[in-house]
Amino acid sequence: MSNPWLALTLGDDPTEHISQVGRAHERFLTGEQAVTQVRPVVADSWRRSAGALVSPDGTAPIDLSDGELEAYRAAHPLARVLPIFRDLLGGLADDGGHLMAVCDAHGRLLWVEGAAGVLRGAESMNFVPGARWDEAHAGTNAPGTALAVDHPLQIFATEHFTRGVQRWTCAAAPIHDPATGRLLGAIDVTGGDHLANPHSLALVRATALAAEAYLSANLPEPVTGTATVSVSGREEAILSVSGRRLRLGRRHSELLVLLLVHPEGRTGDQLGFDLYAGDLNPVTVRAELSRLRRILGPELLDSRPYRLRGNIEADFLTVTRLLERGRVADALEAYAGPLLPSSDAPGIVRLRRLIDSRLRAAVLTGGDPRLILAFLSAPWGADDLEMWEAYATALPPGSPARPLAMNRVAQLAAEYGLTLAGRTARSLRATSVQRPRI
């Protein structure tokens, strides 16, 4: 059985293969759905590239440049293994026909090295440090597609999605953080058609493994202190721990929040009910928890029951603590927005509504026009009719802001199909109309 990650199999004619794949590429661009004579990994990549609206005649955009690029790659974990890349692949890069490239997990090229003449040729297609070579920006290519499928592979000539890259052939392998399993980036060798052989793919894979082995044997000392979670007003949680800043996916963000509000721990079934309610799938929950544990590490996440370890601060917990202490102004300042606003997980929805209603009630009850205005000035409070009524009532009669507030009250009441006939500033204090939801 042929290796699906290799561009050519034994006995293939490279010239004929280039022509066949090139014709399939042109048919695909004209709308033909069935992609024949093309490896499935390549056909799938073409579909993703087309879905991302990558132009077959476009070039990769520059994402980082100058000082910003220097600072970013100096702090990147792959900077520590750059000597390994140069030692194992430098011979290829120095022979005048190849380039060695290293990219981050987003496909941004960090280093591109090789002979001056080959580098000049690569510049014409923006294969330069700082350029974005993930599939969504540069189409099918070895480093970008290796990141997308998380596997070493080759991309040969006309298998590239953009025409300007089709005179090149490349082999790339992804690299992972041995401590967390997260994707760090990829190592790539780019050159001529002769790279389409098993040796180039084996070489980049061995180089990636050597880099991971070095990182595993030289893990940085853990940074003691408190981990922090930022999740208010965000679709995905940001976890800062031991010098790392991790962005979690939606389900992992939901799980992290649910574990934070239950420090005593939760069973898989309890977490599954909070995530899926009646659609509980224990296998799915366990799989998500297993992946989250690989990301966080056993030092942060225990199992049986699942619970977080160590000191972990979260922005939404800060808000609730401040409200419990009666520090409404500080709570409002700390509130960055609704908790995971797009999440429909039942446990998250309940928690989000609880925090929002407690903060809103505290501001309304206090009657401080400065705090009410701060609430109304935020995107989540701008259309709150009851809050505008409270603001209009709290302002002194001679305040120049009061007519504006009354006008906004009338405007919102009309939008909600309500009437303010007969209301006075005095009755506004006693009568409230709540908008559907903050």
Automatic annotation (TrEMBL):
Domain of life where this protein originates: Bacteria
Stretches assigned to the GAF domain: 109-212
InterPro entries documented for this protein: GAF (IPR003018), GAF-like_dom_sf (IPR029016)
Protein name per UniProt: GAF domain-containing protein
